[in-house]
Write a structure and sequence with these properties.
The complex is a heterodimer of chains A (about 280) and B (about 270). Chain A has about 280 residues and is an alpha/beta fold. Helix content of chain A is about 35%, strand content about 20%. Chain A is built from eleven helices and nine strands. In chain A, a hairpin with a 3-residue loop joins strand 8 and strand 9 (about 205-210). In chain A, helix 3 (about 105-115) crosses helix 4. The radius of gyration of chain A is 19 Å and the shape is globular. Chain A starts with 10 loop residues before the first strand and ends in an 8-residue tail after the last helix. Helices cover about 80% and strands about 0% of the residues of chain B. The longest helix of chain B is centred in the middle third of the chain and has 30 residues, at about 125-155. The chains are: A alpha/beta (about 280), B mainly alpha (about 270). The interface between A and B is large, with 38 and 33 residues.
Chain lengths: ~280, ~270
Protein backbone atom coordinates (compact mmCIF):
# COMPACT_ATOMS: atom_id res chain seq x y z
CA UNK A 1 0.00 0.00 0.00
CA UNK A 2 1.16 3.52 -0.67
CA UNK A 3 2.49 5.12 2.44
CA UNK A 4 1.74 8.67 1.40
CA UNK A 5 -1.08 10.24 3.40
CA UNK A 6 -4.25 10.40 1.34
CA UNK A 7 -6.60 12.21 3.64
CA UNK A 8 -6.45 15.69 2.07
CA UNK A 9 -6.23 14.75 -1.60
CA UNK A 10 -9.30 12.91 -2.76
CA UNK A 11 -8.60 9.31 -3.69
CA UNK A 12 -10.42 8.54 -6.92
CA UNK A 13 -9.82 4.82 -7.06
CA UNK A 14 -8.21 2.45 -4.64
CA UNK A 15 -7.32 -1.25 -4.97
CA UNK A 16 -6.42 -3.48 -2.07
CA UNK A 17 -4.70 -6.81 -2.57
CA UNK A 18 -6.57 -7.37 -5.82
CA UNK A 19 -6.24 -10.60 -7.78
CA UNK A 20 -7.80 -11.72 -11.05
CA UNK A 21 -7.94 -15.39 -11.89
CA UNK A 22 -8.73 -16.94 -15.27
CA UNK A 23 -8.75 -20.64 -16.10
CA UNK A 24 -7.07 -21.56 -12.84
CA UNK A 25 -4.24 -19.11 -13.31
CA UNK A 26 -3.69 -15.80 -11.56
CA UNK A 27 -3.26 -13.05 -14.14
CA UNK A 28 -2.34 -10.61 -11.41
CA UNK A 29 -2.34 -10.97 -7.68
CA UNK A 30 -1.77 -8.83 -4.65
CA UNK A 31 -2.08 -5.50 -6.42
CA UNK A 32 -2.36 -2.39 -4.28
CA UNK A 33 -2.90 0.80 -6.15
CA UNK A 34 -4.50 4.16 -5.70
CA UNK A 35 -4.94 7.20 -7.87
CA UNK A 36 -5.62 10.56 -6.30
CA UNK A 37 -6.84 13.75 -7.88
CA UNK A 38 -3.98 15.44 -9.73
CA UNK A 39 -1.77 12.38 -9.65
CA UNK A 40 -0.32 10.48 -12.59
CA UNK A 41 0.27 6.81 -11.89
CA UNK A 42 2.05 4.81 -14.56
CA UNK A 43 1.97 1.03 -14.85
CA UNK A 44 4.87 -0.58 -16.62
CA UNK A 45 5.74 -4.21 -17.15
CA UNK A 46 6.43 -6.80 -19.83
CA UNK A 47 3.76 -8.27 -22.11
CA UNK A 48 1.28 -10.39 -20.22
CA UNK A 49 2.26 -8.89 -16.89
CA UNK A 50 -1.35 -7.95 -16.14
CA UNK A 51 -1.24 -4.20 -16.80
CA UNK A 52 -4.45 -4.05 -18.80
CA UNK A 53 -6.13 -6.51 -16.46
CA UNK A 54 -5.24 -4.33 -13.49
CA UNK A 55 -6.55 -1.21 -15.15
CA UNK A 56 -9.80 -2.89 -16.19
CA UNK A 57 -10.30 -4.09 -12.65
CA UNK A 58 -9.74 -0.58 -11.33
CA UNK A 59 -12.46 0.61 -13.70
CA UNK A 60 -14.94 -2.13 -12.81
CA UNK A 61 -14.83 -3.69 -16.29
CA UNK A 62 -13.48 -6.84 -14.60
CA UNK A 63 -14.58 -8.04 -11.19
CA UNK A 64 -11.74 -8.94 -8.83
CA UNK A 65 -11.57 -12.58 -7.67
CA UNK A 66 -9.95 -11.46 -4.48
CA UNK A 67 -9.28 -8.18 -2.77
CA UNK A 68 -11.38 -5.08 -3.13
CA UNK A 69 -11.71 -2.10 -5.41
CA UNK A 70 -13.17 1.21 -4.27
CA UNK A 71 -14.14 4.00 -6.59
CA UNK A 72 -15.44 7.40 -5.57
CA UNK A 73 -19.20 7.38 -6.11
CA UNK A 74 -20.16 9.28 -9.25
CA UNK A 75 -16.63 9.11 -10.60
CA UNK A 76 -16.48 10.36 -14.18
CA UNK A 77 -14.09 8.22 -16.20
CA UNK A 78 -12.44 8.78 -19.56
CA UNK A 79 -11.04 5.51 -20.89
CA UNK A 80 -8.79 4.72 -23.83
CA UNK A 81 -8.57 0.91 -24.07
CA UNK A 82 -5.63 -0.85 -25.62
CA UNK A 83 -7.48 -2.04 -28.67
CA UNK A 84 -10.60 -0.67 -30.30
CA UNK A 85 -11.95 -2.03 -33.55
CA UNK A 86 -14.90 -0.40 -35.27
CA UNK A 87 -16.77 -2.57 -37.74
CA UNK A 88 -16.80 -0.97 -41.20
CA UNK A 89 -20.58 -1.34 -41.41
CA UNK A 90 -20.96 1.29 -38.69
CA UNK A 91 -20.80 4.79 -40.18
CA UNK A 92 -18.96 6.71 -37.49
CA UNK A 93 -17.22 10.04 -37.95
CA UNK A 94 -14.61 11.31 -35.52
CA UNK A 95 -17.06 13.93 -34.38
CA UNK A 96 -19.74 11.35 -33.65
CA UNK A 97 -17.19 9.19 -31.85
CA UNK A 98 -16.54 12.10 -29.49
CA UNK A 99 -20.13 11.97 -28.30
CA UNK A 100 -20.20 8.20 -27.96
CA UNK A 101 -20.84 7.93 -24.23
CA UNK A 102 -22.33 11.29 -23.36
CA UNK A 103 -23.50 14.58 -24.74
CA UNK A 104 -20.83 17.19 -25.42
CA UNK A 105 -21.07 20.79 -26.53
CA UNK A 106 -19.63 21.93 -29.84
CA UNK A 107 -16.85 23.88 -28.12
CA UNK A 108 -15.74 20.93 -25.98
CA UNK A 109 -15.50 18.70 -29.04
CA UNK A 110 -13.51 21.27 -31.01
CA UNK A 111 -11.15 22.03 -28.15
CA UNK A 112 -10.38 18.35 -27.56
CA UNK A 113 -9.82 17.64 -31.25
CA UNK A 114 -7.59 20.71 -31.48
CA UNK A 115 -5.60 19.61 -28.45
CA UNK A 116 -5.11 16.13 -29.88
CA UNK A 117 -3.98 17.66 -33.17
CA UNK A 118 -6.75 16.21 -35.32
CA UNK A 119 -9.11 19.17 -35.75
CA UNK A 120 -8.89 18.67 -39.51
CA UNK A 121 -10.20 15.11 -39.17
CA UNK A 122 -13.46 15.96 -37.39
CA UNK A 123 -15.57 14.81 -40.32
CA UNK A 124 -13.51 11.77 -41.26
CA UNK A 125 -14.81 8.24 -40.85
CA UNK A 126 -12.94 6.49 -38.06
CA UNK A 127 -12.35 3.40 -40.20
CA UNK A 128 -10.32 5.48 -42.63
CA UNK A 129 -7.94 6.92 -40.03
CA UNK A 130 -4.40 5.66 -39.64
CA UNK A 131 -3.50 3.89 -36.41
CA UNK A 132 -1.92 7.02 -34.94
CA UNK A 133 -4.81 9.27 -35.97
CA UNK A 134 -7.35 6.86 -34.52
CA UNK A 135 -5.41 6.76 -31.28
CA UNK A 136 -5.48 10.56 -31.11
CA UNK A 137 -9.22 10.48 -31.75
CA UNK A 138 -9.73 8.04 -28.87
CA UNK A 139 -7.61 10.23 -26.62
CA UNK A 140 -9.53 13.34 -27.68
CA UNK A 141 -12.78 11.54 -26.89
CA UNK A 142 -11.63 10.65 -23.40
CA UNK A 143 -10.32 14.19 -22.76
CA UNK A 144 -13.42 15.93 -24.04
CA UNK A 145 -15.49 14.31 -21.30
CA UNK A 146 -13.55 16.31 -18.70
CA UNK A 147 -13.16 13.20 -16.59
CA UNK A 148 -12.17 12.97 -12.93
CA UNK A 149 -10.11 9.94 -13.78
CA UNK A 150 -8.41 9.45 -17.12
CA UNK A 151 -7.36 5.89 -17.83
CA UNK A 152 -5.06 5.36 -20.79
CA UNK A 153 -3.92 1.93 -21.91
CA UNK A 154 -0.91 2.56 -24.15
CA UNK A 155 -2.47 5.75 -25.47
CA UNK A 156 0.20 6.64 -28.02
CA UNK A 157 0.59 3.35 -29.89
CA UNK A 158 1.11 4.00 -33.57
CA UNK A 159 1.94 7.65 -32.95
CA UNK A 160 5.35 8.81 -34.15
CA UNK A 161 8.00 9.74 -31.62
CA UNK A 162 7.63 13.53 -31.63
CA UNK A 163 3.85 13.16 -31.61
CA UNK A 164 4.24 10.78 -28.68
CA UNK A 165 6.05 13.37 -26.58
CA UNK A 166 3.54 16.03 -27.54
CA UNK A 167 0.66 13.79 -26.50
CA UNK A 168 2.21 12.98 -23.15
CA UNK A 169 2.79 16.68 -22.69
CA UNK A 170 -0.88 17.20 -23.48
CA UNK A 171 -1.89 14.55 -20.97
CA UNK A 172 0.13 16.19 -18.22
CA UNK A 173 -1.21 19.62 -19.18
CA UNK A 174 -4.71 18.23 -18.80
CA UNK A 175 -3.79 17.00 -15.34
CA UNK A 176 -2.34 20.40 -14.40
CA UNK A 177 -5.33 22.28 -15.75
CA UNK A 178 -8.22 20.10 -14.61
CA UNK A 179 -6.64 18.33 -11.65
CA UNK A 180 -7.92 14.95 -12.78
CA UNK A 181 -6.15 11.76 -11.79
CA UNK A 182 -4.48 9.74 -14.52
CA UNK A 183 -3.82 6.02 -14.61
CA UNK A 184 -1.50 5.26 -17.48
CA UNK A 185 -0.08 2.14 -19.03
CA UNK A 186 3.08 2.62 -20.98
CA UNK A 187 5.73 0.33 -22.32
CA UNK A 188 8.04 3.28 -22.51
CA UNK A 189 8.95 4.60 -19.09
CA UNK A 190 11.48 7.01 -20.57
CA UNK A 191 8.92 9.08 -22.33
CA UNK A 192 6.43 9.27 -19.50
CA UNK A 193 8.76 9.50 -16.55
CA UNK A 194 9.07 13.28 -16.39
CA UNK A 195 5.32 13.63 -15.96
CA UNK A 196 4.72 10.64 -13.75
CA UNK A 197 4.35 10.85 -9.98
CA UNK A 198 4.27 7.18 -9.19
CA UNK A 199 5.47 4.24 -11.23
CA UNK A 200 4.22 0.74 -10.51
CA UNK A 201 6.17 -2.03 -12.09
CA UNK A 202 4.03 -5.12 -12.66
CA UNK A 203 4.87 -8.66 -13.51
CA UNK A 204 1.92 -10.67 -12.29
CA UNK A 205 2.42 -8.88 -9.00
CA UNK A 206 3.84 -5.51 -7.99
CA UNK A 207 7.60 -5.81 -8.48
CA UNK A 208 8.48 -2.35 -7.34
CA UNK A 209 6.96 1.07 -7.05
CA UNK A 210 7.90 4.64 -6.33
CA UNK A 211 9.04 7.73 -8.16
CA UNK A 212 10.36 7.10 -11.69
CA UNK A 213 13.95 7.71 -10.54
CA UNK A 214 13.66 5.18 -7.75
CA UNK A 215 12.06 2.54 -9.93
CA UNK A 216 14.70 2.94 -12.62
CA UNK A 217 17.40 2.37 -10.04
CA UNK A 218 15.71 -0.59 -8.40
CA UNK A 219 17.20 -4.04 -8.99
CA UNK A 220 13.75 -5.47 -9.75
CA UNK A 221 13.31 -3.06 -12.62
CA UNK A 222 16.75 -3.75 -14.03
CA UNK A 223 16.13 -7.50 -13.76
CA UNK A 224 12.83 -7.15 -15.60
CA UNK A 225 13.91 -4.83 -18.38
CA UNK A 226 17.67 -5.38 -18.49
CA UNK A 227 20.47 -3.02 -17.60
CA UNK A 228 20.17 -1.19 -20.91
CA UNK A 229 16.75 0.11 -19.96
CA UNK A 230 18.47 2.35 -17.46
CA UNK A 231 21.15 3.46 -19.91
CA UNK A 232 18.87 4.67 -22.64
CA UNK A 233 17.23 6.84 -20.04
CA UNK A 234 20.31 9.01 -19.79
CA UNK A 235 20.21 9.67 -23.50
CA UNK A 236 16.58 10.42 -23.37
CA UNK A 237 16.84 12.73 -20.40
CA UNK A 238 19.05 15.00 -22.39
CA UNK A 239 16.55 15.01 -25.18
CA UNK A 240 13.73 15.62 -22.82
CA UNK A 241 15.35 18.75 -21.40
CA UNK A 242 15.07 20.31 -24.81
CA UNK A 243 11.42 19.56 -25.17
CA UNK A 244 10.88 20.78 -21.68
CA UNK A 245 11.88 24.27 -22.71
CA UNK A 246 8.57 24.58 -24.45
CA UNK A 247 6.82 23.66 -21.23
CA UNK A 248 5.37 26.51 -19.20
CA UNK A 249 6.97 25.37 -15.98
CA UNK A 250 10.51 25.48 -17.28
CA UNK A 251 10.17 28.48 -19.50
CA UNK A 252 10.66 30.73 -16.46
CA UNK A 253 14.33 29.89 -16.67
CA UNK A 254 14.44 32.16 -19.75
CA UNK A 255 15.41 29.31 -21.98
CA UNK A 256 18.64 28.54 -20.22
CA UNK A 257 19.61 24.91 -20.67
CA UNK A 258 19.94 23.15 -17.38
CA UNK A 259 21.42 19.78 -16.56
CA UNK A 260 18.96 17.06 -15.74
CA UNK A 261 15.42 17.48 -14.57
CA UNK A 262 16.30 18.75 -11.11
CA UNK A 263 14.40 21.93 -11.77
CA UNK A 264 11.28 19.89 -11.12
CA UNK A 265 11.73 19.87 -7.40
CA UNK A 266 10.45 23.38 -6.82
CA UNK A 267 7.30 23.20 -8.87
CA UNK A 268 4.74 20.43 -8.61
CA UNK A 269 3.92 19.75 -5.01
CA UNK A 270 2.20 16.48 -5.87
CA UNK A 271 5.50 14.95 -6.80
CA UNK A 272 6.64 15.14 -3.25
CA UNK A 273 3.36 13.83 -1.99
CA UNK A 274 3.59 10.84 -4.31
CA UNK A 275 4.46 7.48 -2.85
CA UNK A 276 8.14 7.38 -2.18
CA UNK A 277 8.25 3.95 -0.69
CA UNK A 278 10.29 1.78 -2.86
CA UNK A 279 9.98 -1.94 -3.22
CA UNK A 280 6.72 -2.23 -1.33
CA UNK A 281 4.32 -4.91 -2.41
CA UNK B 1 -59.27 1.93 -46.69
CA UNK B 2 -58.25 -1.08 -44.63
CA UNK B 3 -61.07 -3.12 -46.14
CA UNK B 4 -58.89 -4.28 -48.97
CA UNK B 5 -56.58 -7.18 -48.03
CA UNK B 6 -53.80 -5.81 -50.20
CA UNK B 7 -53.91 -2.40 -48.54
CA UNK B 8 -53.85 -4.08 -45.13
CA UNK B 9 -50.81 -6.07 -46.21
CA UNK B 10 -49.06 -2.91 -47.39
CA UNK B 11 -49.81 -1.00 -44.20
CA UNK B 12 -48.71 -3.92 -42.01
CA UNK B 13 -45.56 -4.55 -44.00
CA UNK B 14 -44.50 -0.91 -44.06
CA UNK B 15 -45.12 -0.63 -40.30
CA UNK B 16 -42.96 -3.66 -39.67
CA UNK B 17 -40.18 -2.42 -41.98
CA UNK B 18 -40.06 0.94 -40.20
CA UNK B 19 -39.66 -0.85 -36.86
CA UNK B 20 -37.02 -3.36 -37.86
CA UNK B 21 -34.78 -0.92 -39.74
CA UNK B 22 -32.91 0.52 -36.71
CA UNK B 23 -32.88 -2.86 -34.98
CA UNK B 24 -31.44 -4.46 -38.10
CA UNK B 25 -28.63 -1.90 -38.10
CA UNK B 26 -27.54 -3.08 -34.69
CA UNK B 27 -27.72 -6.69 -35.87
CA UNK B 28 -25.36 -5.78 -38.72
CA UNK B 29 -23.01 -3.62 -36.62
CA UNK B 30 -22.76 -6.19 -33.85
CA UNK B 31 -22.39 -9.07 -36.32
CA UNK B 32 -25.41 -10.83 -34.92
CA UNK B 33 -26.97 -12.09 -38.14
CA UNK B 34 -26.72 -15.71 -37.15
CA UNK B 35 -27.81 -14.85 -33.65
CA UNK B 36 -30.97 -13.24 -35.02
CA UNK B 37 -31.55 -16.31 -37.16
CA UNK B 38 -31.30 -18.52 -34.11
CA UNK B 39 -33.82 -16.45 -32.21
CA UNK B 40 -36.16 -16.49 -35.18
CA UNK B 41 -35.90 -20.25 -35.62
CA UNK B 42 -36.74 -20.77 -31.99
CA UNK B 43 -40.03 -18.98 -32.72
CA UNK B 44 -41.53 -22.20 -34.10
CA UNK B 45 -40.91 -23.86 -30.78
CA UNK B 46 -42.71 -20.89 -29.27
CA UNK B 47 -45.66 -21.47 -31.59
CA UNK B 48 -45.84 -25.13 -30.62
CA UNK B 49 -45.66 -24.35 -26.91
CA UNK B 50 -48.26 -21.62 -27.27
CA UNK B 51 -50.67 -24.14 -28.77
CA UNK B 52 -49.80 -26.72 -26.15
CA UNK B 53 -50.38 -24.42 -23.18
CA UNK B 54 -53.10 -22.44 -24.93
CA UNK B 55 -51.47 -19.08 -24.45
CA UNK B 56 -51.26 -16.14 -26.84
CA UNK B 57 -49.19 -17.01 -29.88
CA UNK B 58 -47.09 -13.85 -29.87
CA UNK B 59 -46.46 -14.18 -26.14
CA UNK B 60 -45.27 -17.76 -26.67
CA UNK B 61 -42.90 -16.74 -29.46
CA UNK B 62 -41.58 -13.78 -27.46
CA UNK B 63 -40.88 -15.90 -24.39
CA UNK B 64 -39.16 -18.72 -26.27
CA UNK B 65 -37.07 -16.35 -28.41
CA UNK B 66 -35.99 -14.45 -25.30
CA UNK B 67 -35.17 -17.71 -23.51
CA UNK B 68 -33.14 -18.89 -26.50
CA UNK B 69 -31.02 -15.74 -26.35
CA UNK B 70 -30.53 -16.09 -22.60
CA UNK B 71 -29.58 -19.75 -23.04
CA UNK B 72 -27.02 -18.70 -25.60
CA UNK B 73 -25.51 -16.06 -23.32
CA UNK B 74 -25.28 -18.68 -20.59
CA UNK B 75 -23.65 -21.27 -22.85
CA UNK B 76 -21.20 -18.66 -24.13
CA UNK B 77 -20.08 -17.99 -20.56
CA UNK B 78 -19.37 -21.69 -20.09
CA UNK B 79 -16.94 -21.34 -22.94
CA UNK B 80 -16.92 -25.00 -23.96
CA UNK B 81 -17.96 -24.56 -27.59
CA UNK B 82 -17.47 -21.70 -30.01
CA UNK B 83 -20.34 -19.25 -30.39
CA UNK B 84 -20.67 -20.35 -33.99
CA UNK B 85 -21.25 -23.99 -33.04
CA UNK B 86 -23.58 -23.05 -30.19
CA UNK B 87 -25.69 -20.97 -32.55
CA UNK B 88 -25.86 -23.84 -35.00
CA UNK B 89 -26.99 -26.23 -32.29
CA UNK B 90 -29.56 -23.90 -30.79
CA UNK B 91 -30.88 -22.62 -34.12
CA UNK B 92 -31.65 -25.93 -35.72
CA UNK B 93 -32.56 -27.89 -32.64
CA UNK B 94 -35.22 -25.36 -31.63
CA UNK B 95 -36.58 -25.36 -35.16
CA UNK B 96 -36.62 -29.17 -35.28
CA UNK B 97 -38.17 -29.39 -31.82
CA UNK B 98 -40.90 -27.03 -32.94
CA UNK B 99 -41.59 -29.06 -36.09
CA UNK B 100 -41.70 -32.32 -34.15
CA UNK B 101 -44.03 -30.91 -31.51
CA UNK B 102 -46.36 -29.47 -34.13
CA UNK B 103 -46.50 -32.88 -35.82
CA UNK B 104 -47.44 -34.52 -32.53
CA UNK B 105 -50.33 -32.17 -31.90
CA UNK B 106 -52.59 -33.82 -34.43
CA UNK B 107 -55.69 -32.37 -32.75
CA UNK B 108 -54.81 -28.88 -33.95
CA UNK B 109 -54.63 -27.82 -37.56
CA UNK B 110 -51.57 -25.61 -37.92
CA UNK B 111 -50.72 -23.82 -41.12
CA UNK B 112 -47.02 -24.62 -40.97
CA UNK B 113 -46.21 -22.84 -44.22
CA UNK B 114 -47.85 -19.71 -42.87
CA UNK B 115 -45.51 -19.69 -39.91
CA UNK B 116 -42.39 -20.56 -41.87
CA UNK B 117 -42.89 -18.15 -44.76
CA UNK B 118 -45.46 -15.70 -43.48
CA UNK B 119 -48.94 -14.88 -44.63
CA UNK B 120 -49.01 -11.14 -45.02
CA UNK B 121 -52.11 -11.17 -47.18
CA UNK B 122 -54.08 -12.54 -44.24
CA UNK B 123 -53.33 -9.76 -41.76
CA UNK B 124 -56.31 -8.41 -39.90
CA UNK B 125 -56.99 -4.96 -38.47
CA UNK B 126 -56.03 -6.36 -35.07
CA UNK B 127 -52.69 -7.51 -36.48
CA UNK B 128 -52.07 -4.01 -37.82
CA UNK B 129 -52.84 -2.56 -34.40
CA UNK B 130 -50.32 -4.94 -32.81
CA UNK B 131 -47.67 -4.14 -35.44
CA UNK B 132 -48.00 -0.39 -34.98
CA UNK B 133 -48.52 -0.47 -31.21
CA UNK B 134 -45.73 -2.97 -30.58
CA UNK B 135 -43.52 -1.35 -33.20
CA UNK B 136 -43.89 2.08 -31.60
CA UNK B 137 -43.05 0.60 -28.21
CA UNK B 138 -39.95 -1.12 -29.61
CA UNK B 139 -38.77 2.11 -31.24
CA UNK B 140 -39.33 4.17 -28.09
CA UNK B 141 -37.31 1.71 -26.00
CA UNK B 142 -34.60 1.60 -28.66
CA UNK B 143 -34.38 5.40 -28.74
CA UNK B 144 -33.99 5.41 -24.97
CA UNK B 145 -31.37 2.67 -25.21
CA UNK B 146 -29.57 4.22 -28.17
CA UNK B 147 -26.51 5.76 -26.53
CA UNK B 148 -25.48 2.85 -24.28
CA UNK B 149 -26.19 0.30 -26.99
CA UNK B 150 -24.21 2.20 -29.61
CA UNK B 151 -21.34 2.77 -27.18
CA UNK B 152 -21.34 -0.94 -26.31
CA UNK B 153 -21.35 -1.76 -30.03
CA UNK B 154 -18.23 0.33 -30.60
CA UNK B 155 -16.47 -0.92 -27.47
CA UNK B 156 -17.97 -2.73 -24.50
CA UNK B 157 -15.10 -1.80 -22.20
CA UNK B 158 -15.41 1.92 -22.82
CA UNK B 159 -19.16 1.69 -22.25
CA UNK B 160 -18.66 -0.26 -19.03
CA UNK B 161 -15.87 1.97 -17.72
CA UNK B 162 -17.81 5.13 -18.44
CA UNK B 163 -20.90 3.90 -16.64
CA UNK B 164 -23.27 2.96 -19.47
CA UNK B 165 -23.96 -0.61 -18.33
CA UNK B 166 -23.48 -2.42 -21.65
CA UNK B 167 -24.68 -5.79 -20.31
CA UNK B 168 -28.05 -4.32 -19.45
CA UNK B 169 -28.25 -2.61 -22.86
CA UNK B 170 -27.49 -5.91 -24.55
CA UNK B 171 -30.12 -7.75 -22.55
CA UNK B 172 -32.83 -5.20 -23.35
CA UNK B 173 -31.78 -5.33 -26.99
CA UNK B 174 -32.35 -9.11 -26.94
CA UNK B 175 -35.84 -8.54 -25.59
CA UNK B 176 -36.52 -6.05 -28.37
CA UNK B 177 -35.33 -8.62 -30.91
CA UNK B 178 -37.63 -11.23 -29.41
CA UNK B 179 -40.53 -8.77 -29.56
CA UNK B 180 -39.84 -7.93 -33.20
CA UNK B 181 -39.62 -11.61 -34.10
CA UNK B 182 -42.98 -12.22 -32.43
CA UNK B 183 -44.52 -9.34 -34.34
CA UNK B 184 -42.87 -10.14 -37.67
CA UNK B 185 -43.56 -13.86 -37.78
CA UNK B 186 -46.92 -13.45 -39.46
CA UNK B 187 -45.61 -11.02 -42.07
CA UNK B 188 -42.52 -12.68 -43.48
CA UNK B 189 -42.36 -15.95 -41.57
CA UNK B 190 -39.80 -17.46 -39.27
CA UNK B 191 -37.32 -18.36 -41.96
CA UNK B 192 -37.19 -14.91 -43.53
CA UNK B 193 -37.33 -12.55 -40.54
CA UNK B 194 -33.58 -12.08 -40.32
CA UNK B 195 -33.40 -11.08 -43.96
CA UNK B 196 -35.80 -8.21 -43.26
CA UNK B 197 -33.51 -7.16 -40.41
CA UNK B 198 -30.25 -7.38 -42.29
CA UNK B 199 -30.74 -6.65 -45.97
CA UNK B 200 -32.31 -3.16 -45.66
CA UNK B 201 -29.66 -2.19 -43.09
CA UNK B 202 -26.88 -3.41 -45.37
CA UNK B 203 -28.41 -1.54 -48.28
CA UNK B 204 -28.58 1.64 -46.19
CA UNK B 205 -24.90 1.55 -45.23
CA UNK B 206 -23.60 3.35 -48.30
CA UNK B 207 -26.05 6.19 -48.03
CA UNK B 208 -25.41 6.98 -44.38
CA UNK B 209 -22.83 9.18 -42.69
CA UNK B 210 -23.92 8.58 -39.11
CA UNK B 211 -25.43 5.63 -37.23
CA UNK B 212 -28.67 7.57 -36.89
CA UNK B 213 -29.09 8.28 -40.59
CA UNK B 214 -28.30 4.65 -41.34
CA UNK B 215 -31.09 3.56 -38.99
CA UNK B 216 -33.60 5.85 -40.71
CA UNK B 217 -32.37 4.85 -44.17
CA UNK B 218 -32.73 1.18 -43.24
CA UNK B 219 -36.35 1.79 -42.25
CA UNK B 220 -37.08 3.42 -45.56
CA UNK B 221 -35.22 0.78 -47.55
CA UNK B 222 -37.31 -1.84 -45.77
CA UNK B 223 -40.53 0.01 -46.50
CA UNK B 224 -39.53 0.31 -50.15
CA UNK B 225 -38.82 -3.41 -50.26
CA UNK B 226 -42.25 -4.17 -48.79
CA UNK B 227 -44.06 -1.97 -51.29
CA UNK B 228 -42.00 -3.30 -54.21
CA UNK B 229 -42.21 -6.92 -53.13
CA UNK B 230 -45.94 -6.88 -52.49
CA UNK B 231 -46.66 -5.13 -55.77
CA UNK B 232 -44.57 -7.68 -57.61
CA UNK B 233 -46.23 -10.54 -55.80
CA UNK B 234 -49.65 -9.22 -56.81
CA UNK B 235 -48.60 -8.81 -60.38
CA UNK B 236 -46.65 -12.02 -60.90
CA UNK B 237 -48.62 -14.11 -58.41
CA UNK B 238 -45.53 -14.99 -56.37
CA UNK B 239 -45.49 -15.75 -52.64
CA UNK B 240 -45.58 -12.45 -50.74
CA UNK B 241 -42.92 -12.99 -48.00
CA UNK B 242 -40.19 -14.22 -50.34
CA UNK B 243 -41.10 -11.49 -52.86
CA UNK B 244 -40.41 -8.83 -50.20
CA UNK B 245 -37.04 -10.38 -49.46
CA UNK B 246 -36.18 -10.51 -53.16
CA UNK B 247 -37.13 -6.84 -53.49
CA UNK B 248 -34.84 -6.04 -50.54
CA UNK B 249 -32.07 -7.98 -52.22
CA UNK B 250 -32.53 -5.94 -55.39
CA UNK B 251 -32.23 -2.74 -53.34
CA UNK B 252 -29.06 -4.05 -51.73
CA UNK B 253 -27.54 -4.89 -55.10
CA UNK B 254 -28.36 -1.38 -56.32
CA UNK B 255 -26.63 0.07 -53.27
CA UNK B 256 -23.52 -1.90 -54.16
CA UNK B 257 -23.50 -0.39 -57.60
CA UNK B 258 -23.09 3.08 -56.11
CA UNK B 259 -19.44 2.43 -55.37
CA UNK B 260 -17.11 -0.29 -56.54
CA UNK B 261 -17.31 -2.99 -53.92
CA UNK B 262 -13.57 -3.16 -53.41
CA UNK B 263 -13.40 0.52 -52.49
CA UNK B 264 -14.63 -0.07 -48.97
CA UNK B 265 -12.18 -0.46 -46.18
CA UNK B 266 -12.42 -3.42 -43.91
CA UNK B 267 -12.71 -2.91 -40.18
CA UNK B 268 -9.58 -1.34 -38.81
CA UNK B 269 -7.78 -1.76 -35.60
CA UNK B 270 -5.69 0.71 -33.75
Amino acid sequence: MLQAPAQDTATLVEMHNVGIRRDGRWLVRGVDLSVRRGEIVTLIGPNGSGKSTTVKTALGVLKPDEGEVRRTPGLKVGYVPQKVTVDWTLPLSVERLMRLTGHLGRADVDTALEAAGIAHLAGAEVQKLSGGEFQRALLARALARKPDLLVLDEPVQGVDFSGEIALYQLISDIRDRTGCGILLISHDLHVVMAETDTVICLNGHVCCRGTPENVLRSPEYVRLFGARAGETLAIYRHHHDHTHLADGRVRRADGTITDGCDGHGDTPAHEKAAGEKHGAG
Amino acid sequence: MLDDFFTRALVAGVGLALTVGPLGCFVVWRRMAYFGDTMAHSALLGVALAFLFEINLMAGVFIVAALASIALLFLQRQGTLSTDALLGILSHSTLALGLVMVAFMSWIRIDLMGFLFGDILAVSRADIAVIYGGGALVLVVLAWLWRPLLAATVNTEIAEAEGLRPERARFIFMLLMAAVIAIAMKIVGILLITSLLIIPAAAARRFAGTPETMAVAASFAGALAVVGGLSASLRFDTPSGPSIVVAALVLFLFSLAKLPYGARETGQSS
